[in-house]
């Protein structure tokens, strides 16, 4: 094996797409997927890889320092691609401490383990930290987030991610640890846990349940198909400049309510329902506290320097996403049984 790479959070939504891309594209890399399998982690996302000999799964918690140190000694990783995180803003409002533990303490545990393992020779080593555009805060009607935009996180989730980004840069600055960071906009696609907008609404439409739109629905997000994010991570891991930050985005801004109406139209077609029937499920509900108004990414640095661009038009990506969820109802039924029902009741009571 020419490289041994640790991917954290590989059983989650984005992580599973990154693991699959690396395992298939680089048969001479050994990919170790470390995941705690929280409610958001699901080994079903990776069943097709289980028999491959360049893929290993390790169940563990990045908050457990001793365990992490043992894992780094066992595998002697050449690189780390760190995606493990608590990732949902609404849950961070209910329970900020989980976010501090995993996103901040867990990241520092990984940084310490990498620093210790690589201390004699940083050559060809890399700590890649996967982050979010939410660290930049909220935009008004105009403007885009650049890599130089000052951090201004507004939710417990984005504050914990901002803190982890700062720690990664601090380890670069203080200990010369080789790192890159990317900050990406909202992802959508197969395997996303149905607490996030699109899979939640797809599942509700399928079941004829209401679509809870927060506030007036005029909040703007930039949407990127998850496989395009995974491709960007591949480019940045291999060709990104050490110590740099890259913004990743879809060049694809939507107001929530407009996006939801497009989703409803496509769902009516996919389910052979009368046009307008999914849209009739829209219900405006109490706004999320501290709801960020607008995120919009300028991803031109990545485009110019590394030649990355999104490959899918949004309508096409959305159609693929809808088909995946409708063809994988068992996946959806499994992740929405049990604890999810309590979460849903509590969040949307
Ligand atoms: P996710 O919630 O779907 O998956 C997170 C994974 O991390 C799960 O498999 C979970 O089991 C694992 N995990 C959680 N706590 C852990 C711990 N203590 N130890 C080990 N594993 C743990 O998240 P996602 O949407 O795939 O996001 C992945 C990364 O990308 C996160 O760092 C997130 O901040 C970032 N990101 C997400 C988006 C998005 O739109 N989803 C956008 C930009 C950046
Ligand atoms: P979400 O998928 O939670 O991602 P993020 O908050 O990280 O951007 O939400 C996307 C947008 O959709 C956000 O503006 C909040 C809104 N939203 C709703 O209106 N209703 C919902 O039930 C959810 C989950 C989100």
Report on the architecture of this protein:
- Helix content is 43%, strand content 17%.
- Strand 1 (3-8), helix 1 (13-25) and strand 2 form a beta-alpha-beta unit.
- By secondary structure, it is of the alpha/beta class.
- A 7-stranded parallel sheet has the order 3-2-1-4-5-6-10, sandwiched between helices. A 3-stranded mixed sheet has the order 7-9-11. It has a two-stranded parallel sheet with strand order 8-12.
- The chain starts with a strand and ends with a helix.
- The chain has 12 helices and 12 strands.
- It has helices at 13-25, 65-75, 89-94, 96-118, 156-175, 197-206, 226-239, 256-270, 300-306, 314-327, 329-335, 339-347; strands at residues 3-8, 29-35, 55-59, 79-82, 126-132, 179-184, 186-188, 211-214, 220-225, 245-248, 253-255, 282-285.
- It has one domain (3-191, 223-252, 294-312, 340-347): Rossmann fold (3-Layer(aba) Sandwich), CATH 3.40.50.
- The mean pLDDT is 97.
- Thymidine-5'-diphosphate (TYD) binds next to helix 6 and strand 8.
In short:
The chain is built from 12 helices and 12 strands. With 349 residues, it is α/β, with parallel strands linked by helices.
Using the alpha-carbon principal axes, give the shape: globular
CATH C-level name: Alpha Beta
Find the count of extended strands (DSSP E, 2+ residues).
12
Task: Return the structural class.
Answer: alpha/beta
Determine the number of helices (DSSP H or I, runs of at least 4 residues).
Answer: 12
Kindly report the CATH topology: Rossmann fold
N-to-C terminal Cα separation, in Å? 51 Å
CATH architecture: 3-Layer(aba) Sandwich
Give the overall pLDDT as a whole number.
97
Domain tally = 1
Name the CATH superfamily assignment: NAD(P)-binding Rossmann-like Domain
Spans of at least 5 consecutive residues with low confidence: none
What is the N-to-C succession of helices and strands?
EHEEHEHHEHEEHEEHEEHEHHHH
List the bound ligands: nicotinamide-adenine-dinucleotide, thymidine-5'-diphosphate
